[in-house]
Description:
The complex is a heterodimer of chains A (578) and B (346).
Chain A: E1 5-10, E2 13-18, H1 23-29, E3 53-56, E4 63-64, E5 75-77, H2 81-95, H3 112-120, E6 136-139, E7 143-146, H4 155-163, E8 169-172, E9 179-182, H5 195-199, E10 205-207, H6 211-218, E11 224-229, H7 250-260, E12 264-267, H8 268-287, E13 298-299, H9 304-313, H10 327-343, E14 350-356, H11 360-365, E15 380-383, H12 384-393, H13 415-418, H14 425-442, E16 462-469, E17 472-480, H15 485-489, E18 497-501, H16 519-535, H17 545-556, H18 559-566
Parallel strand pairs in A: 1-5, 11-12, 11-14, 13-18, 14-15, 17-18
Antiparallel strand pairs in A: 1-2, 3-4, 3-5, 6-7, 7-10, 8-9, 16-17
Helix pairs in contact in A: 8-10, 8-14, 8-17
Chain B: H1 4-10, H2 23-32, E1 39-44, H3 53-60, H4 62-76, E2 80-85, H5 87-101, E3 106-110, H6 122-130, E4 153-157, H7 158-168, E5 175-182, E6 188-193, H8 198-204, E7 213-217, E8 224-227, E9 240-245, H9 251-265, H10 271-284, H11 291-304, H12 308-312, H13 314-325, H14 336-345
Parallel strand pairs in B: 1-2, 1-4, 2-3, 5-9
Antiparallel strand pairs in B: 5-6, 7-8, 7-9
Amino acid sequence: MNKKKVKIKINNKTVNCEAGITVMQAAKKAGISIPGLCGHPDFKARSTCRVCVVEIKGRRNLSASCSTFVEDGMEIITDNERVINARNMNLELIFAEHIEKCEDCIWRFECKLLAFAKEFGLKITKFDDRKRDRKTYRFANAVEIDGTQCIDCRLCIDACTQLQKIDYLELKGKGVNQEIVPSAKKDKKCILCGQCTVHCPVSAAQEQANFEEVEKELNNPNHIVVAQFAPSIRVSIGEDFGLPHGKIVTGQVVSGLRELGFDYVFDVNFGADITTIVEAEELLKRLNSKDKKAPLPMFTSCCPGWVNYVELYRADLIPYLTTSRSPHIHNGGLIKTYWAQKQKISPRKIVVVSIMPCTAKKYEAHREEMKINEHYPVDYSLTTREFSFLMKKNKIDFAKLKNSKSDNPLGEYSGGAAIFGGSGGVMESALRTAHVMACGNKKSGICNSKIDFKSVRGLDGIKEACVTVAGTKLRVAVVNGIGNIKGVLDNLKNYDYIEVMACPGGCIGGGGQPIPTTPEIRQKRIDALYKLDKKLKVRKSYENKSAQEALSWLKKQGHKTEHSILHTVYKKKTNNLT
Amino acid sequence: MQSIIQKIKKANLTGRGGACFPTADKWLMVKKAKGAKKYIVCNASEGEPGIKKDKYLLEKKTDHVIDGILIAINYLKAEKAYIYLNPAYYKEFGKKLEKIINTLPIEVFKKQHKAGYIGGEESSALNHIEGKRIEPRLRPPFPTTSGLFEMPTLINNVETFYDVSLIAANEYQGKKFYTINGDCLYDGVYELPENWTIAEVLKKTDNYPDFDFFVQVGGDASGAVLNEQQLNQQAGGGGSITIHSCLKHNPIGLMKYWTNFFYNESCGQCAPCREGLHRLKEEIEKKELNWQAIVRLLDNLEDTSFCGLGCSVKMPFSSYVNNILKNNDIKINLPVNQRQCLCECF
């Protein structure tokens, strides 16, 4: 069906465009960029910053281009004095809401306010700062909302309520006194997913940064500082350096980390293979047992936002969570034991830094129960944005970096691990391996061909499938974004295995990822992961030889050690995470 | 027999809330709109200072108002109507209204005190009734197609429903209600022909001053300021006429009053209104007034605000300067240089 076309004029240039789009979209298509601050493709326009105003012939006042739809014959001006004055005035008014803390702001290279000030030649300090006395709200060690920087766009609230349906952030007060605050309601708690931070245009909602501590460690000659990067980083970070969305930059990530001074660089994909094997094993065990302590359906647990959700809101589901630790914790544990022993380095001297697409990983890394012999497997967890910032701060031209390879043995990985970063990936990886493991046990050779489980892929909110794993029918579901969880929790009996990722799209859409993260960008990042998977010779975690070696080494260390490195426990939490 | 919609059309009735939208057109829009249910809201929030006619109608013409609402319910086959009621009025007439309504499908909704002026804006009212944050909605969609609970909704002012009741009974005489306030002897609410001029209304009510004066018409906040020579026109908006003595009034005080009113009533949703009014208040409270900065803020409010509240802030200021201060025959308590400076800026 052909979409209706309309003919409009923008700055006296005739533009043909489809009906139903906004003036801003039409202008973009015509190569005219209109600045804006308060919109995000995940949400309906609020149209409140009024920075994107344009003049439309026949209308008395200026119109917000983000929420005005094109009409046939419309004549639009985006660049006359009236429009420019209004735009600049609104920008200057908004600047005065945001107290500049650029010195230690990880966002200073990406900040839209600074960019607009430069582009339009505006002073960001024309008016006095009026939000001097606003509070900063900190959520555990992961996320913070700094009221002195907030420009009242409310995207954080939209992320918390419309997208995630957590409803933890609220708007208090009226007029100039309005303020984003954490809910005072006892039944509202933050899961630390960080979707508020990845939607904030000015870094008022942001991760609690740890880059300074990491810089100190890198300068400490007595420490061996090891970096490990998550599966999804390699398809997202390029965006921060002008590379196309979804560009696979694994080798450059490794180089970048080496340039920053990390002594070793490992790949969390290795950990993802370990996680897959541990989790697949547990799934098969649960399928074949009637143990009430290990019921079905089994839930994945590598998403810390989801684990927080269970512990805070649905502690009754704790027995259903796989006890397997998450990939970077597996990796960290192995670095400080298996690898440390191989290298003859005291674990005390090793500092493990994870580069994660996630804010909740900061909290996960410092859960007491993660400790192995008094040591945290992971010492610091930085977001993708913090990693970008460190490179920009150190003037590393990421786009021009030559490829480098991760160190071994924790550098090898399968296609199953590679897709961990997208919604459905953990499920598919586990199914691939469970398939082999189950077949292996039955000594049947025919099942090796089952690799692609396409029904669990894609960006739908809930994906359901019935898959056959080595002759057993499995009813599986994938929850893409915690906002979609209800539909599945209401029907638990219908499933055997459920993957939950708190962020839309999975880790590629994580709270620590580059800004912007939009539906279109999520799709491109996830496509890149499957491309990576397809290119790999080894597609199943079970067939990652280095991972199998590490696991058999672990087995020899005795059950207690093996268990402490591979498994974890969960606890009901009544109060907000601290 | 004529249908009610034909009668309303013939009477040329326009909305009495202030925007003067043709009532029949609005009713037809809601009638034609598709929706599982339809709702009616009688806007009785009356938050603009200087207007008291809805209060008067609720007190003296209750039956007619309810009758008008019922006519709309029948015409639209509406599920339910809400009387969105100013909290002070609720205190006075809430019980009485509820008694008259009895089992009719009408609910008296008590507007919260904190909802204020912006709570009277029609889409804010819808948000309020739905239990959402009290602030205007983005348009489109318009309430006529997607209003209360996303259903087609007819929102009319108290007086409009009163007029509909008269029209249905063939008793409508083209009158409207005027609220007269300020420096006059006989302030109050008057029912007079809608085509009368401001001067006529003042004269017939014995309120035409014998001193130099100006008026603010259509609300003490957003209404336009007119001089004596400009009274040969009808009183628009909510039909209020407030008389100011030229010598008695305090020019800066009046502007501060407008500023503070809008500052306190802004919902804070959009930047030009939230931030602009904050800066306007800052500027107007300074000892040395920077009129250029003030005018820039006012222009920006008018030109870029999200809703009518922000857009209307400039009106009292600009009409006051243009109609009063620029007229050198009018004596005002303002230093000449300041007056000159102000006139140059607008």
